[in-house]
Amino acid sequence: MKTKIVAIILLIISIALIAYGFIIGNNKEVKNTSSANETVEKEETTEEETTEEETTTKEAADMKFERMSDSFDDSTFDEKKVIDSEAKGYTYELIDTKTSKITGVGVDTSKNIGIIKINWGKNGYDIGNEYNRLQTVEIDGFKGKVNSGYLGGFGQSIGGEVAFFIMKDKTLEYARYSKMLLAVKAEDGTVASDGVVDGITGVVAIRQANYHAPQSTGAVTTLAIKADGTFYDLLFHIKQQ
Questions:
Q1: What is the pLDDT of residues 202-235, one digit of tens each?
Q2: Which of 57, 81, 88, 168 is the most exposed place for a label (fewest CB within 10 A)?
Q3: 50: left (phi over 0), alpha (psi -120 to 50) or beta
Q4: Residue pair 40/122 in contact by the 8 Å Cβ criterion
Q5: Is residue 77 packed enough to be buried (19+ CB in 10 Å), middle (13-18) or exposed (0-12)?
Q6: Which residues on adjacent β-strands are paired with residue 150?
């Protein structure tokens, strides 16, 4: 009799332990599934929350930016090496523009075109919400073979921005932003080069700079630099911005 009672007790304990193990196992599985779902949801949320600027930066990462590697060392810049006689008495200080995220300029040498990525709203142009997003404009019609692209500008406010392109023969061509804006509004994403900058040769790099003319409050200009460090102030070569 005692043996039967002990056996029954052991059987009850065994059943209880099996049931407990089953419940614990199910709880762990549910918890793991819940954690996995939560991880997926977090990943999806992170992806959805990617900002416009991050997207723009990612798209522009494959482009050759305006301050790509070239043969000019900024630390050797000498303001006295300006070529233009009109710049007598001017002083210059280079501006670091390599961190541009919203506007990028690149080239596709296989198609001989320039590529501009610009968000007009982020650049200070109030042209309506329908245009204030990332736009791509292609520049074609170059007289020479394009090698590299840079951003430049002139003056003290928006409206004087210019994309410059160094050709393989080290001459210079350009395209005004104002012309690109008209193309975007006309729903045409391609504009022609404004042509060759006359009298400019041997260019290896483009830099923006602050300049001060005699008795002037100063403004921004763009320099076309040669391998020997001498440079042209493009303010005197690109008229009527």
A1: 999 999 999 998 877 788 999 999 999 999 999 9
A2: 88
A3: beta
A4: no
A5: middle
A6: 164
- 190 and 138 in contact (C-beta within 8 Å)? yes
Distance CA 209, CA 3 (A): 101
- State yes or no: pLDDT of 47 exceeds 50: no
| Token pair of 99 as six digits | 């961190």
Token output for 173? 């061509």
Is residue 148 within 8 Å of residue 203, measured between CB atoms?
Answer: no
Two structure tokens written together for 158? 């928006």
pLDDT per position as a tens digit, 96-116: 765 455 678 889 999 999 998
More confidently predicted of 218 and 159: 218
Q: HSE on the CB side for 151, CA within 13 Å?
A: 25
According to DSSP H, which parts of 49-162 are helical?
52-60
Residue 55 φ/ψ, nearest 5 degrees: -65, -45
Q: Please report which helix (H) or strand (E) contains residue 132, including its range.
A: none
